[in-house]
Model the fold of this input.
Amino acid sequence: MGGAQGTAGRTAAGDSARTQAVRDTAARLFGAAGYAGTTMNDIADAVGLLPGSLYHHFASKEQIAAELLTAFGTALTDVATAAAAHPPEPGAHAEQRVRQLAADVMALSFAHAAAVRLRAFEPPTVATARLREAMQLPTTGLERAWRDAVDGLRPAREGGADPALLRFALQQATLDASGSYRPDRDPRELAGHLCDVLLHGVAVACPPDADLDASAASRAAVEALAGWRTQEPPGGPRDRDTIVAAARTEFARRGYDATTVRDIAAAAGVRMGTLYRRVESKEALLREVLGRYSGHLADAVTAVLAAGSGEVETLDALARVFVHASRRFEAESCIVRYGWSGREAATSPFHDYYLETQERLRALEDLLARGVADGRLSTVPDMAWHIRSVLWLPFHQHARTGTARAHAFLRAALLRGALRG
Amino acid sequence: MGGAQGTAGRTAAGDSARTQAVRDTAARLFGAAGYAGTTMNDIADAVGLLPGSLYHHFASKEQIAAELLTAFGTALTDVATAAAAHPPEPGAHAEQRVRQLAADVMALSFAHAAAVRLRAFEPPTVATARLREAMQLPTTGLERAWRDAVDGLRPAREGGADPALLRFALQQATLDASGSYRPDRDPRELAGHLCDVLLHGVAVACPPDADLDASAASRAAVEALAGWRTQEPPGGPRDRDTIVAAARTEFARRGYDATTVRDIAAAAGVRMGTLYRRVESKEALLREVLGRYSGHLADAVTAVLAAGSGEVETLDALARVFVHASRRFEAESCIVRYGWSGREAATSPFHDYYLETQERLRALEDLLARGVADGRLSTVPDMAWHIRSVLWLPFHQHARTGTARAHAFLRAALLRGALRG
DNA sequence: GTCTATATATCGATAGAC
DNA sequence: GTCTATCGATATATAGAC
Done:
């Protein structure tokens, strides 16, 4: 197995060419704009039909999405089954097995980008019961495959990368890859470079923990993190901030698109009239939530970069920042994850946030370039993208993983390399 | 109790005037055009709102209908409870009790015409589960009230009117009255005249059964009924007649509006293309079904009227005809029952059939007028309407009632009077 | 298999009554 | 200042016809 997993993975025997065209078009649009963000009208326009005619091919919008998810699940099971067919062997082959699995899964993630988007980037509350069921991919086989593959690696040294977190990172990053990388890249090459980063690390020589903890960048990070803790006291019950806080919670639960102004008003305990007296629009609420979030992030990142430490120490401090950010701003992480679609459109309320993340990515690229230039960092193609996707992994979602353990893993894997001795 | 049961029966405390206006308007339109025949757009137009604005007042179209049905059920229970409060006494008061109950129920039927229409004249298949549940009126109390009232009447002579069928006729005719009479009549007067007809009969002197059976009208009726039995042999499987027969069955099951052309094609075992090759339109199918039906009815009625018997014998023969028609053309009876709304519109596919029923009603009126003129029939206001509603009662729906027993009941009640000695 | 017409329903936003 | 009732736009879906 392994190889090409093109649109063939989504075809169903016996379907007419037009039915297939509808499915493919829907997949493209779902992948780009999400389920709620894609209307039957959009699909019909793109295919060249009238909206009602779609219902000759599919019983409902939901059914199209469910079929895409099912096809993805089937393909994943096939990959896991093929991986299980070759029992793991310790030693030299082990790394190759991990790389093979990463490449296979990442290829699937790209081939089924719509399903990935639906499963991982769509808030569960917008989906009906049937669609939620289809979102539950059969990942037990895949988890077993990752466990076998990672267990085959040379046992970690004392203080090395936590194998459980390594499994988690590899599985999560490869499965959701199509949401983290640009679609024109080769997923198998990306998988290889991601493995380079996680298994071998990017620091040519890495200082001991004590030195990293004592760096100026680290101290700047810790200080910025302390600033995040300042919680504004909740004002009066009908205060504007109360509404913003309610919007934040609701956006995180349902996603921006699926959250109605009525939801927010109900959660804030006010009526529509009051809400619209306090805030301009639903979009303004999102901009405010994202603005505060991005401001906090920018403060911390700027402080770390300005501390003047070496590139390795700076990268370590950034890891500390992002690990804490995933926790402290879990709601905002959900919001941007769900709302990531259409981010590039200038009219999108996510656009400003998107631009700021692009700025931070460029700053990271500059940092890495300096590190490569002065010989402190090894180089890998698209290194900034890989590092960003690893820094943003939701480690806190993995059972009992606190920020300290997550940060320790990032040091061990990202800087020193999970396989390095 | 008893008295006025105007729109007050449908009001709900705490509703705004507009909400009440929406409910009342919906009731009016549902009563006139049925559930499927009334759109939210129609209601909104009539109230002076946009369709979407209706959803501020009611969660769904279904909810409006369910509230109307519930209000009708509550009012019926109140009537039954009030009737039970006065235990029945044998003797002179008994007839008055029956008349009181008939008047009360018929008044409710008129005040809740929309609910009556929804419950009795709407095919169950168009309703959702929740609406079907609301259609199940709490009639056990009412049945008990009718049993008590009718049992209080003087026991029937040997060969007199069957008390069970008398209960059935009174309950059915009063409950569905708003579907059988014009809405501008006073329901309490109508109830009184209906009781006159059923309890005292319209024949001044009624010949014995043997003479009725031997009349020329009776022989003409029996001969016409035999003609109905000629079943056209079902042609080829894709024959036009096969499609017409399938349409007849489907229309009866779901009602004309709710039956789709796809339903008919599936039932006939043909594809849409074949169907449209054989028949002109869905409407043409209905016209053909109703045309055959009306033709058979007209043949029988014309033959009976042309037999030249006396008015009493002729009426008895007509009773025979309609009792058999309810059975032989049960499907058609359902179809016209469900499709009765909008019958007066010239564009309605039911219009032709409606005109023919009007003709038959006029013929019945002429017959009755002759009978009154020559002293053979007693006179009651709107007599033809009452007789028609009794002749069309679906006796076969009452447990184990065959045509012979139903015809015997009509002779005993309609001609001789259930109470006459 | 597709079109045209139209159904029920939702949602962001706002005007105006209280 | 607050909230109710409304609009305008648009969503998903169905059905007759060809």
In short: Chains A and B do not touch (no CB pair under 8 Å). The longest helix of chain A spans residues 61-85.
